[in-house]
Specification:
rod-shaped; 3 helices; 140 residues; 3-stranded antiparallel β-sheet
Length: 140
């Protein structure tokens, strides 16, 4: 009698492994896609920060102006991403907060946050790159 109950219990579970695999695999794939999307978001953020810093350093070179730095930052972003990420670029001449005699170039970049692939919402990330002006006073 016990043997028959055990055999009946095994028959009742027949075919449950593919169903359990399908339910588990869906969650594993969803988790993998979420990790890949997070990595893409960090990649975009790193590219934008690097482009802002490089644009600021380019504008701070003697003989260059703020527009040259902004166009350099846009060029770097366009090369690595799409031009949608290079829309809000603003270059400013400021002074160092602790030493007012030192001039800085600040490159501000607004870029969309990628949520699904490279598609992002209206919200944006704000990245700033700074560089000391070469040779003292800024001369465009």
């Amino acid at each position: 009698m016990r043997r028959e109950a055990a055999v009946h219990g095994l028959r009742a579970q027949r075919g449950s492994a593919p169903v359990a695999f399908a339910m588990t695999a869906a969650w594993v794939v969803l988790l993998a896609l979420a990790v890949m999307q997070l990595a893409l978001s960090f990649h975009v953020r790193t590219i934008v920060i690097d482009a802002a810093g490089e644009g600021a350093r380019y504008a701070a070179l003697k003989g260059n102006d703020l527009d040259a730095g902004a166009s350099r930052a846009a060029e770097l972003i366009n090369a690595a991403l799409t031009q949608d990420f290079a829309q809000g670029i603003d270059a400013r001449l400021t002074t160092h907060p602790k030493d007012p005699g030192v001039e800085l170039i600040e490159m501000h970049v607004e870029a969309p946050i990628p949520v699904i692939g490279l598609i992002g919402p209206k919200a944006s990330m704000h990245c700033v790159g700074r560089a000391l002006v070469e040779g003292g006073a800024y001369e465009p």
